[in-house]
Amino acid sequence: MKAKFFPGLLAAAALLVALPMQAAEGWSDNYADALARAKAEKKLLFVEFTGSDWCPPCKKQAEEVFSKQEFKDYAA
Fold it and tell me: Is the pLDDT of residue 50 over 90?
């Protein structure tokens, strides 16, 4: 009986992992749109590659860099 449910459970887990994460405020998860906006505003494009919201180094970077006003001012 367990063997019958395992493929479905595995597929459900894969779908949850594959769902795109929503971009945080001020960020875009669409490269083409972000590139067009950067060109229109004559700004550089900052690209961050991350894949999860549970990654300890990613969380630390978000907390220690991206959330700081100094970074936000510079990035603006």
Answer: no
CB 35 within 8 A of CB 41: no
Q: CA-CA distances (angstroms) from residue 42 to 24, 39, 56?
A: 22, 5, 33
Contact 37, 28 (CB under 8 A): yes
SS3 sequence of the chain: CHHHHHHHHHHHHHHHHHCCCCCCCCCCCCHHHHHHHHHHCCCCCCCCCCCCCCCHHHHHHHHHHHCCHHHHHHHC
User: What whole-number distance in Å separates Cα of residue 8 and Cα of residue 68?
Assistant: 42
pLDDT bracket for residue 29 (50, 70, 90): confident
The answer to whether the pTM exceeds 0.70 is no
